[in-house]
Amino acid sequence: MDFPSMTFHTNNVTEFILFGLTQNEETQKICFVLFLSFYLIIVLGNLLIVITIIFSTHLTSPMYYFLSYLSFVDICYSSVTAPKMIADFLLERKTISFIGCIAQLFGVHFLGCTEIFILTVMAYDRYIAICKPLHYTTIMTRRICGQMVAASWVGGFLHSLVQTLLTTQLPFCGPNEIDHYFCDVHPLLKLACTDTYIVGVIVVANSGMIALSCFLILVVSYIVILASLRSHSSEGRRKALSTCASHVTVVILFFGPCTFTYIRPSSNFSEDKTVALFYTVITPMLNPLIYTLRNSEMKNAIKKLWSRKMFSTEKTNM
After folding, report:
1. Which of 80, 101, 126, 91 is nearest to 279 (CA)?
2. DSSP character string of 62-100
3. Is the separation of the CB atoms in 86 and 36 below 8 Å?
4. Burial of residue 148 (number of CB atoms within 10 Å: 0-12, 13-18, 19+)
């Protein structure tokens, strides 16, 4: 079987019709209110974390540096799919242009893969902090942290570029109905009017193996961390476990559904779009709660920032 040439075909399809999460009108009205609330929580919650870390003089460790970027990526990541999904709940005919569909696909994979890499880098940071505390400041310098974040962005971009090029070189002659609430590779492969077996294999190898390999790296790193905690004091173990618990929770919530979706070939599983909600909406919404409720430093920094803001406002009004 010949590998498809990387050329752009002239498509008969100029737009796609999205089925969305549900076709029931009453359910759509409920979903509109529900997911609009979720999206506001995502934006405001993650924005609060970014602002707190930027303006706090105490949250200067690499962990918070990475967390600020994770929160920023969460805002951007959800913004690629959530606003369109929310608006579609009010529309009878849910359409997206071909260019808009490809742009959405690129954004989802670019930001999603970047988040995967940032979560992996955060695990490495915790490994160095707990297993090599004496060398932590010399290893995790500001420059190294910046290079890790930059590498995460570049890695996400390259991954997304491959996915987008593989999809755009396929011919789409119709039908143009996507049983999903956003444009993704697997639903689009089903609509291509050509054999997509080879492309499907590459997609799984690209997306699935990135998610799976990063997940395995995270699992191994935390096994090593847990093993090293045996030599720590009870107080040291408690603090280390508390710090790692938030990250482990986010990793499970994000990597589980993401790996389930992309580690296997294209399928007709109707639950795919429900599973996708976890890594596009639910996890970005829960991240601020997970990282603030379990982190006393973050909670104190938010309180101080809010108190400072209120004090300056009262002083201005006097």
Report:
1. 80
2. HHHHHHHHHHHHHHHHHHHHHHHHHHHTT-SS-EEEHHH
3. yes
4. buried
Q: What is the per-residue pLDDT across 46-96, written as a single tens digit (0 to 9) for each? A: 999 999 999 888 888 898 999 999 999 999 999 999 999 999 999 988 999
Whole-model pTM above 0.85?
A: yes
Peptide bond into 62 cis (omega under 30): no
Asked if residue 114 lies in contact with residue 80, where contact means CB atoms within 8 angstroms, the answer is no
Tens-place pLDDT, residues 271-308: 778 888 989 999 999 888 888 776 778 888 888 877 76
SS3 269: coil
Tell which phi-psi region holds residue 56, choosing left (phi > 0), alpha (psi between -120 and 50) or beta.
beta
Nearest one of 237, 218, 240 to 122, comparing CA atoms: 218
d(CA 303, CA 75): 22
What domains appear along the chain, each with residue ranges and CATH number?
Answer: 22-300 (1.20.1070.10)
Paired tokens of 210 = 């990135």
What secondary structure letter does DSSP report for 270?
T
Mapped onto helix, strand or coil, the DSSP state of residue 129 is: helix
Is residue 18 helix, strand or coil? strand
**pLDDT 10s digits, 44-56:** 999 999 999 998 8
Longest dimension (CA), the chain: 77
Q: Residues in the chain, how many?
A: 318
